[in-house]
Amino acid sequence: MSKTHLIDGICFNSEQCGLLSVEEECLPKLIKKEPITNVYDVEQTPFARGKFAAVRRCTHRATGVPYAAKFIRKRRRAMDQRHDILHEVAVLQLAADSARIVRLHEVYETAAEMALVLELVEGGELQHVLDSLEALEERHVVEVMRQILEALSFLHRRNIAHLDLKPQNLLLTGAYPDCDIKLCDFGISRVIQPGIEVREILGTPDYVAPEILNYEPISLATDIWSVGVLAYVLVSGGYSPFAGDSKQETFCNISQCSLSFPAELFGGTSDAARDFIRATLNTSPCSRLTIEQCLSHPWLRGAVSLTLTLTAAEESQVPGEDAACDREVGDIGRSLRPDGSGGSPSSSPAEEEERDDLPVHKRPKNSPEGRRSSFPVGACLCCRRSQSPLAAELLKGLGCQQRHYSSPSVGILMDRGVIY
User: Fold this and answer.
1) pTM of the model
2) CATH code for 5-119?
3) Each residue's pLDDT tens digit, 102-123
């Protein structure tokens, strides 16, 4: 693969599809070899930690400016991962002009690790807001989603898929809701080039798209699935649409797109919000909204009022003309979809209504602790018929018996979002 420069010193990795690289002659200028402690006072206790990385607060000694230093181990499972770290550095370099993406300040390297000195976003993770509040106001969720999509739009215009959108990777510049949102963690992002297929098993369980589980090509539309899951989580106050009792059960729910809107969680949610979620959570990538269509959707544009969903008793008291106007909100969004369809193609109105009545406990709170679910699922991923089954290596030792979701053969690194 010939080298194509995106900006000075940044080009496509000629050996690994989907990755960027930094040219060798630019590395000495970009990466500093002296100890980071010569320049920064680094706190010993990380404020965020993963399996292969730890984020520590640091303060520049000369200026007193605080930063976040992300220390990443260069070897994982006896393999050199320096090219992956340089890819993340390259993506951050490309995104330097975006106000919605955390900024890279400096890079340091030792024999064992690399340290990315990043802009310190004081408000913390969006996940902390979900953990502390019972529910988020829909008008605030709309503003959060708009900013997330603006960050994603910046990446997609450069053919970069983030592939790990989740509340833990969304940082707040201040106290919620009077703050801005910044996107971080590009460790598993990939560049999508025309004519070059990228097939990898990576992501975070609740947010991973069906095509990744089926080992089909990754595209920019893969991010749109995660956008839909994120919108569901935020609108519902932290409940995941597909989470099961195990990762395997979650994967089954995702592959079948078993989507519902329980009245206990969505009784006061606008039709426009539901329509946006349905239009992004489509198992066919080409049938999902594009990033531009997401940003122009009535829910995000504020072109329609956030009409509350009426109960049957309330609807009977509303004149027919007004009720028709309320239902029209969803029709506007459906007209934006590439296929012009609404909801799941195979779902009848009766089935939609039945799924919307599923109890809340079938939609576990989006938290790793104490998660439980009795979500109804069908055949497991390795049993179901598919033209593109889950990668064979993931099914090794899984067997072929119903509801064997507790098998450890499929695992996910929750910290880095990589399925292995």
Assistant:
1) 0.76
2) 3.30.200.20
3) 999 999 999 999 999 999 999 9
